[in-house]
Amino acid sequence: MARVAVVTSHPLFAEGGHLVIAEGLTSALRDAGHQATVIRTPQNRFGRQGAAYLATWLTDVGQGHDGQPVDHVVSFRFPSYAVRHPSHVCWLNHRMREYYDQWPQFVRSLSTRARLKEGVRRQLIHATDTYLLTRHVSRLFAQSETIQRRLQRWGGIPSTVLYPPPRPRPYRCDGYDDYLFVACRLSPLKRVGLVLEALAHPTASGIRCLIAGDGTEREALLAQTRALGLEGRVQWLGTISERELVERLATCRAVCYPPSAEDYGLVTLEAFASRKPLITCSDSGGPAEMVRPDVDSLVVEPTPAALAHAFRRIIDDVALAERLGGAAQTRAAEFTWEQAISRLLGT
Questions:
Q1: From CA 310, how far away is CA 246, in angstroms rounded?
Q2: 313: burial class by Cβ within 10 Å (0-12, 13-18, 19+)?
């Protein structure tokens, strides 16, 4: 059996799907008889990314505290793939998106001087990432086709898609109560505000929604809830435990997750493992590419009216939710940690 270091960067006082996947991989490796641990490398704020790359490059992952060698390294996201090891597989979650697909939005509000400075920094990041991901890792997997396309567009970097399974949890289905469930970080890219606008649409009148998570947009979303008159229909749960997450997934009618160009979207397979359909948007990236419209999920255009119509369909037709949920659970069974580990370790 192997000794495996799972390496991912992680900002302070934050949670993210990449860390859930890293910890899920670690648990699955241990269940399979391997020794595994998670190493968190720094992810510095803007202007100090170079220091984070250097610190990760200098991180010793060659052996454990007992002096025994580490057999394999699996890295996830920038700049964790800068670690050095002869058997280094990168299972890429994402590069620093502000310097890639989000560049136009990122520089829009910057001054000319700041834009020039960030343009130079962007070129350095691109060159560094291309070197690390083409000459520094043994193999490169992308966690979705969306990520794979970005690698090809920016850098011409080849990769193989390998979807992460849901984290090992006691997922179950306790029925299909008459509410929708949203679980994500509250940030602009997750488009929770779009969910609120859809709930306020006349088509979605009376539909309830429970929202779990925290983030930079929390206060703005609470204000939007009040402005739209949704206080009686939207319940904000904040950060919830794993146990409560499983319980909410088990009882909701469907999970709503309409992000913008998401890298992967872990909640997709968590919903599926709980026998629940997903409501997402055609431009949502990873979630939209994993689902089968009208087979295990509802996929609509990213507008309040389209989402509201999907909400109405699923709330008014419990048989539809049950049918989609059954197909979703079958789909989730296609993604296993056994297969993922075999491909990552080359066994």
A1: 23
A2: middle
Distance of CA 200 to the CA centre of its chain: 27
What are the tens digits of pLDDT across the range 226-274? 999 999 999 999 999 999 999 999 999 999 999 999 999 999 999 999 9
- What is the C-alpha to C-alpha distance for residues 120 and 125, in angstroms, rounded to an integer? 9
d(CA 331, CA 82): 34
Report which of 282, 281, 315 is spatially closest to residue 207, judged by C-alpha positions.
315
The pLDDT tens digits of the residues spanning 297-335 come to 999 999 999 999 999 999 999 999 999 999 999 999 999
Is the pTM above the cut of 0.85?
A: yes
**Domain total for the chain?**
2
CATH number at residue 193: 3.40.50.2000
Centre a 10 Å sphere on the Cβ of residue 346 and count the other Cβ atoms it contains. Answer: 10
Please check whether residues 8 and 150 belong to one and the same domain: yes
Whether 302 and 322 have beta carbons less than 8 Å apart is answered as: no
